[in-house]
Amino acid sequence: MNVALELEVKNTYEDFILEKDIMYFRVGEHGLVSFHGKNYHVKKRLNTEEIQNITSDSNFFKVNTDSYVNTRKIQHIGDGKVFFEVRGSESKYTSITKLRQHKLKEIVLQQKAEA
């Protein structure tokens, strides 16, 4: 008698947890959202309600017209960039407007003080 065991394997590309796995995301045209994780990026088409839910999440901060960063994953902010890993040629980053850079620094410092 053969018994097949089904193992639940997490598929990072489809079953990611937004607050835990995603460093930043970009909202494109026609509901296409590009999610960026540590070693991957995934594009998904979302409806208007889903986009409103993720863009209003308090863990994410709008850094420019179409990009939102996970404030819990930020390592460094400077020179118009938000870095998510050790700085260097391989580091993940996204750009931020100078106007929003100051506000984001305040939020990150407040979160670190609370932790």
Mean pLDDT score: 86
Low-confidence stretches: 1-7
Assign a percent range to the helix content.
25-40%
Terminal-residue CA separation: 53 Å
Largest sheet: 5 strands, antiparallel
Number of helical stretches of at least 4 residues:
3
Topology, number of strands: 8
Radius of gyration, rounded?
17 Å
Q: What fraction of the residues are assigned to beta strands by DSSP?
A: 25-35%
Shape, please? globular
**Broad structural category:** alpha+beta
Order of helices and strands: HEEEHEEEEEH
> Main sheet: which strands, in order across?
3-2-1-5-4
Describe the fold and architecture.
The protein has 115 residues and is α+β, with helices and mostly antiparallel strands. Helix content is 25%, strand content 26%. The chain has three helices and eight strands, in the order H-E-E-E-H-E-E-E-E-E-H. The strands form two sheets. It has a five-stranded antiparallel sheet with strand order 3-2-1-5-4, covered by helices on one side. A three-stranded antiparallel sheet has the order 6-7-8, covered by helices on one side. Strand 1 and strand 2 form a beta hairpin. The longest helix has 17 residues. The radius of gyration is 17 Å and the shape is globular. The N terminus is likely disordered.
Question: Helices, strands, pairings?
Answer:
Elements: H1 18-21, E1 24-27, E2 32-36, E3 41-45, H2 48-55, E4 60-62, E5 67-70, E6 76-78, E7 81-83, E8 93-95, H3 98-114
Antiparallel strand pairs: 1-2, 1-5, 2-3, 4-5, 6-7, 7-8
Key terms:
115 residues, alpha+beta, five-stranded antiparallel beta sheet, three-stranded antiparallel beta sheet, 3 helices, 25% helix, 26% strand, globular, disordered N terminus
